[in-house]
């Protein structure tokens, strides 16, 4: 039993470490994407300031809270940006997925571990960018002690949902060899629905209800809203409960899809 | 006791039939028609611990598919594979993780190394993944560094390595956890003479000192002649021959060639393309030498005395058929069918 736990831990650590090192290798690219998000924060906060004008409160957001929300959610988004979809499509395309399947660790775990390593690495760069983001947008401490404690939990759950979704998208490559266009579309739609430009409570009518039912809001809106105190008290626990439900659902779906993908494995050539 | 036991292994690839014409891609997606390819068709063999077996066949014969089935990467359509592990027998695609700890894999056309990072980082992953204790890791890596000459590039990012260096790195990565079973799929493909030699002597050394059982596919028959006492030859997914390398040559090339060059200051023994000496008939080579094919069990003495009665022999060579000649002939026959 202890051997088993140690083996699992070492495998996770091994993959996470390599992706962490890869992030450092590509530090210029990571820094650029952090810088880009600062520019994006600048644009968004200017637009929203103009839209708000003299309005005080919209759906529970005053302008000041909204600006902190937008700054935070876009910084988070850099951490959420994933490589797993690209990794899996690339490895299936060139056939190196052979080696991954022949490892003593399930492919899905390998991918989650790699994403963890990458996100931890990116975190460092986001902390570097945060002062600039605060300058062009605005940052404030968590709404209260409760928010400070629950924010990291909400962020972690959201990160996991985001990663599971990205792997699901990547697994499509076992059925269709070229999914580049689909991946791009997915990223744009998922990004928008997660609330990185517009808080999801602003979405109108039926659209709002649909977004409420989808898992994307957990990957952006929920953690940031917890931080600024938009979601608080019992609502925080209820929302996180739903996040856990989504994780279980997606995990199950992923296991199912992977089982079918494995049966379909046709390695290219050779 | 055999380490690998393969019985009636069959793998059929099923791919949706491509529809051409307008909206071809979409119609392909909804198509219910399939192309079926039988890559491995009822292959059976067993491998004993400590053997090096050459698994040969022309391109598309089913070699790589067999290896993928043995590693558990693919699931067969039917048939069984049993691998004897330390904790009892395993079925590769069912006991994938247990099997994985037990095997090392090299696919010469692909690399398991991390492209962006120094070579040693890939080894660190193997160390973590296979739960290798630090002392054992240091010892094994030390030996591999020495045998494969890794020191000069162990801190170089893999994308900067030459093909030969990369292959040495891949071999080390496949053996760091000291698996008792090693699958080598074209480990010398694209390498120069010296790099091939390094790979071969390394494989030999590994088998000799660690008793590692090795299944090797290759198109370079020098690999086989150097390393394998046993060959399994397959084509169209079926086993054509399973036995010793010498046995294959004896069975498919029961002749050797005696090439005779006569002194040029004598008249030609024959004006045509053939020359008859007793029961033997020679064909004229392009360079004017005469080539006799003599059955292996017949001494060449009769021929030599027959010739030297009338002719002065300037030069004489006896050419034993090698594996390459045999394989060439076998592949040729299969294609003619």
Oligomeric state: heterodimer
Terminal CA distance of chain B: 38 Å
CATH class of the largest domain in chain B: Alpha Beta
Main β-sheet description of chain A = 2 strands, antiparallel
Q: Strands across the major sheet of chain A, in which order?
A: 1-2
Strand content of chain A: under 5%
| Terminus-to-terminus distance of chain A | 39 Å
Strand content of chain B: 25-35%
Runs of chain B in which pLDDT lies below 50 for 5 or more consecutive residues are none
Give a count of the beta strands of chain B, DSSP E runs of length 2 or more.
15
Account of the 3D structure:
The complex is a heterodimer of chains A (270) and B (337). Chain A is globular, with a radius of gyration of 19 Å. Chain A is mainly α and 270 residues long. Chain A has helices spanning 2-25, 27-52, 63-80, 84-94, 97-101, 107-136, 145-171, 180-193, 205-213, 221-228, 234-264, and strands at residues 57-58, 61-62. Chain A has eleven helices and two strands; from the N terminus they run ααββααααααααα. The model of chain A has no long low-confidence stretch (mean pLDDT 92). In chain A, 75% of the residues lie in helices and 1% in strands. By secondary structure, chain B is of the alpha/beta class. Chain B folds into two domains: 2-250, P-loop containing nucleotide triphosphate hydrolases (Rossmann fold); 255-320, no CATH class. Chain B has eleven helices and 15 strands. Chain B has helices spanning 24-30, 63-71, 96-102, 119-129, 134-148, 163-175, 193-210, 221-227, 245-252, 301-310, 323-336; strands spanning 2-16, 34-48, 52-56, 78-85, 88-90, 103-107, 181-185, 213-217, 230-235, 238-244, 255-262, 274-277, 280-284, 290-295, 313-319. A six-stranded mixed sheet of chain B has the order 6-7-8-3-9-10, with helices on both faces. A five-stranded antiparallel sheet of chain B has the order 12-13-14-11-15. Chain B has a four-stranded antiparallel sheet with strand order 2-1-4-5, with helices on one face. In chain B, strand 13 (280-284) and strand 14 (290-295) form a beta hairpin. Chains A and B meet through helix 1 and helix 5 of A and helix 2, helix 3, strand 6 and helix 4 of B.
């Amino acid at each position: 039993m202890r051997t088993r736990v140690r083996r699992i831990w070492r495998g996770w650590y091994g993959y996470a470490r390599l992706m962490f090192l890869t992030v450092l290798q590509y530090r210029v690219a990571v820094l650029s994407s952090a810088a880009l998000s600062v520019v994006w924060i600048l644009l968004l906060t200017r637009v929203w300031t103009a839209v708000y004008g003299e309005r005080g409160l919209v759906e529970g957001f005053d302008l000041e809270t909204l600006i902190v929300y937008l700054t935070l959610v876009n910084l988070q988004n850099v951490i959420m940006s994933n490589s797993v979809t690209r990794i899996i499509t690339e490895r299936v395309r060139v056939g190196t997925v052979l080696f991954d399947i022949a490892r003593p660790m399930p492919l899905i775990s390998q991918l989650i571990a790699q994403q963890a390593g990458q996100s931890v690495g990116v975190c460092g760069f986001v902390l570097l960018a945060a002062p600039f983001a605060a300058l062009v947008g605005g940052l404030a401490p968590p709404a209260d002690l409760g928010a400070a404690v629950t924010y990291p939990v909400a962020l972690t759950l959201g990160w996991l949902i985001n990663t599971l979704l990205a792997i699901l998208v990547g697994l499509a490559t076992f059925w269709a060899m070229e999914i580049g266009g689909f991946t791009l579309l997915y990223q744009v739609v998922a990004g928008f629905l997660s609330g990185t430009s517009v808080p999801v409570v602003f979405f109108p009518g039926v659209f709002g209800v649909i977004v409420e039912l989808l898992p994307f809001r957990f990957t952006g809106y929920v953690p940031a809203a917890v931080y600024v105190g938009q979601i608080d008290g019992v609502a925080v626990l209820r929302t996180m409960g739903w996040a856990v439900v989504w994780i279980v659902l997606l995990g199950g779906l992923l296991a199912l899809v992977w089982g079918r993908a494995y049966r379909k494995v046709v390695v290219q050539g050779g | 006791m055999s380490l690998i036991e393969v019985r009636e292994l069959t793998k059929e690839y099923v791919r949706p039939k491509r529809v051409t014409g307008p909206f071809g891609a979409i119609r392909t997606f909804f198509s219910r028609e399939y192309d079926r390819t039988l890559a491995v068709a009822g292959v059976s063999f067993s491998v004993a611990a400590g053997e090096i077996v050459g698994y040969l066949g022309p391109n598309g014969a089913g070699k790589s598919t067999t290896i993928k089935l043995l590693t558990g990467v693919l699931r067969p359509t039917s048939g069984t594979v049993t691998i004897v592990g330390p904790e009892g027998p395993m079925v590769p695609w069912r006991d994938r993780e247990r099997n994985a700890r037990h095997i090392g894999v090299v696919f010469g056309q692909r690399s398991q190394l991390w492209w962006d990072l120094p070579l040693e980082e890939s080894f660190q992953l193997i160390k973590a993944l296979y739960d290798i204790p630090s002392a054992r890791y240091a010892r094994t890596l030390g030996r591999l560094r020495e045998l494969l000459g890794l020191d000069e590039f162990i801190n170089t990012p893999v994308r900067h390595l030459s093909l030969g260096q990369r292959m040495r790195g891949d071999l080390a990565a496949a053996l760091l956890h000291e698996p008792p079973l090693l699958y080598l799929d074209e480990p010398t493909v694209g390498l120069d003479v010296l790099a091939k030699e390094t790979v071969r002597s390394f494989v030999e050394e590994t088998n000799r000192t660690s008793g590692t059982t090795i299944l090797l596919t290759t198109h370079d028959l020098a690999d086989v002649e150097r390393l394998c006492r046993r060959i399994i030859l397959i084509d169209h997914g079926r086993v054509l021959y399973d036995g010793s390398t010498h046995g294959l040559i004896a069975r498919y090339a029961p002749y050797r060639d005696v090439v005779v060059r006569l002194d040029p200051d004598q008249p030609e023994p024959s004006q045509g393309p053939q020359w008859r000496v007793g029961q033997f008939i020679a064909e004229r080579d392009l360079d004017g030498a005469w080539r006799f094919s003599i059955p292996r069990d017949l001494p060449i003495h009769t021929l030599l005395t027959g010739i030297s009665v009338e002719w002065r022999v300037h030069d004489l060579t006896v050419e034993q058929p090698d594996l390459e000649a045999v394989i060439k002939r076998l592949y040729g026959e299969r294609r003619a069918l």
